[in-house]
Structure formats: C-alpha cells, structure tokens
Amino acid sequence: QVQLVESGGGSVQAGGSLRLSCAASGVTYSSRCMGWFRQAPGEEREGVAVIGSDGSTSYADSVKGRFTISRDNAKNTLYLQMNSLKPEDTAMYYCTAGGRFRSSFCLKGYGLDYWGKGTLVTISS
Asked: Do the beta carbons of residue 34 and residue 23 sit within 8 Å?
C-alpha cells in the first residue's frame, strides 16, 4: 500500500521560509516522478515543483528562484524548500508520485498515481 505523508506546513510572515517534507512508503522515489502541487481556496490545483524519474526538475514560473525541490533516496523522502514566501503562496500543498516520466510532463499533472493528504501553508502579509 502506497502512502505519502506530508509535514512541515505552518503559518509564517511574508518573506519567511518553510521546508516541506514528504515521507513515502510502498513506493520507491528514485524510479518515479515526484513532486509538489498546491491548491488555494477557490482555485484549481497547480503544479509547483517536480523531480522527474531522470532527475530533471521543473518549477512553476511563480516559484522559480524561491523554491527548491530535492529528494533523499536513502530516506525515501521528498522536500520542498520555500524561501521568500508571499501571501499568494498560501495553499494546501500536496505531495504526489507518478511513473517514469520527465519532470515537465508531471508538472502539468500527467502520469501521477498517488497523492498525500496535504499540509497547509499560510503566509501573512
């Protein structure tokens, strides 16, 4: 049974930082497309950052230069370091795992099989 469990969300002021973690069981990160999506109230879910099965990374334009995705294969854990946070980054953040695809494909929402329950990030101005 595949489980993705996110942690690290919280409330910070604009300009602050947070690091999200996603611990996986029942699935091996290194052979899959892994990433972070987010959904703000009243908005559609959008891709934030993804690591492809080939190690490529892709980011949403809105977070480039501020967010960094990484993974620790030994710990089977995915991370999202978020710096210079803005109020518009407020959302529920979800961890996701997919098949053997490049990051650009998964960032569009394709090829994703598993989802975590999410962790809430709230940024105040």
From this structure: no
